[in-house]
Design a protein that fits this description.
CATH class of the largest domain: Alpha Beta
Largest sheet: 7 strands, parallel
Number of domains: 2
Strand order of the largest sheet: 3-2-1-4-5-6-7
CATH architecture of the largest domain: 3-Layer(aba) Sandwich
Radius of gyration: 23 Å
Shape: elongated
CATH topology of the largest domain: Rossmann fold
Length: 382
């Protein structure tokens, strides 16, 4: 189907050099807008040159292109020129400002992925046009008070999208912004997740899992301690698959923790990046996804798990309460509560486990699907 829209949109992201949550969201948003056929041009901008090859599998044959500052902007000469322009009373980042002038001419719609403290997109509003559409998406879980100067910039957005109701309240009341809207994220590869078969729970061994970065803020320690609680202290049969890459020093600490609690027969580390096109294979191997992070925006993985037919257990972080607060065992206040929830889930009959996970998946389809959130996002641009 040919492109029929007369509008053009640029999705702006602060970075696009790895395949992380913000990067995937930027590309997924571009795919969504492209597939609506409402835009004749869909472009992704990041300040630094991205590795476009990382996203080829996601974009496939869609005519989505990438923009970034000229490499020259990072040179000593460019920094010298910016300093000279500043001395002459011009913008502190004169070259970048000129670049954004041309961006503002080329597009009718702007979708800016950002977070409190991020200023890379500020030059765009030097050329603000009230007849164009500007939306921001806060990509991180933050309750950070904006400075007065930053509030003035954010007030120019038609809408500011946040992850959940608590953030919406904070941004409206503390940052005095009335243009805030709560809207969850979409997930990539939804069709493959939904095509996975139901969990059977006929095997005695319940398989828990984590997929993502090896990073201390992901608090993978608690997942290992949970297996110690279930298997060593309560004689249950659980396995844990930890899939990802990242901080190798943290990975070595986790592996040492596994040996300390004699869990090497029950915990499997699968070290390596998994393409978003293939993550459904991970969810096909587990029954329950664990979310024990200290800070999160979503996480996206909990939505992927729900679409895949897995159950989710974790802490009250990010959008977990808004998404799944009506279900038992999912959102827990602390480690002891998580242990109690996991044990209670394990003690359910097979029929009860099947019933609750099927209800969980159907809830995702009816309330949290890409189609539902895509329609809401389209309305915000109308």
């Amino acid at each position: 189907m040919s492109k029929v829209g007369k509008n053009s949109i640029v999705i702006c992201t602060p970075y696009l050099t790895t395949v992380g949550g913000t990067e995937i969201e930027a590309v997924l948003t571009a795919l969504h807008f492209y597939d609506t056929h409402k835009y004749e041009k869909v472009v992704i901008f990041s300040p630094s040159k991205c590795n476009a090859a990382l996203f080829e599998d996601l974009i496939e044959n869609r005519a989505i292109s990438f923009l970034h500052y000229p490499i020259f902007f990072g040179s000593n000469w460019a920094q010298f020129l910016n300093r000279m322009f500043k001395k002459w009373g011009l913008s502190a980042f004169f070259l970048e400002t000129i670049y954004w002038f041309f961006i503002s001419l080329r597009f009718t719609h702007f979708f800016v992925l950002t977070y409190p403290g991020s200023v890379y997109f500020f030059p765009l509003f030097r050329f603000y046009n009230p007849h164009k559409k500007y939306l921001a998406k806060i990509t991180m879980w933050h309750f950070t008070l904006l400075s007065t100067a930053h509030q003035l910039v954010y007030k120019k957005f038609h809408k500011i999208i946040v992850f959940n109701g608590n953030q919406e309240t904070f941004w409206k009341e503390k940052n005095t912004l009335s243009n805030v809207k709560c809207l969850d994220i979409m997930i990539f590869n939804e069709k493959k997740f939904l095509s996975l078969p139901e969990k059977s729970f006929y095997d005695d061994v319940l398989c828990l899992g984590y997929i993502g970065r090896f990073s201390r803020d992901k608090n993978i320690d608690d997942m290992i301690l949970l297996i110690d609680f279930l298997n060593n202290k309560n004689q249950k049969k659980c396995k844990l698959i930890i899939q990802g890459d990242g901080d190798l020093s943290y990975l070595h600490e986790l592996q040492a923790l596994v040996l300390k609690y004699q869990l090497d027969d029950f915990i499997i580390f699968k070290i390596g990046f998994v393409s978003p096109n293939q993550t459904h294979e991970f969810y096909s191997k587990i029954d329950v996804l664990l979310v024990t992070s200290t800070h999160e925006g979503g996480p996206m993985t909990s939505l992927e798990a729900a679409a895949s037919g897995c159950y989710v257990m974790g802490y009250d972080i990010g959008a977990m309460q808004d998404r799944f607060g009506s279900f038992p065992y999912v959102v827990n206040a602390n480690f002891n509560s998580l242990c109690d929830s996991a044990l209670a889930f394990l003690n359910l009959t097979t029929f009860e486990k099947l019933a609750i996970t099927n209800e969980f998946r159907h809830y995702y389809i009816s309330k949290l699907s890409n189609a539902t959130k895509g329609q809401q996002l389209n309305h915000l641009f109308e």
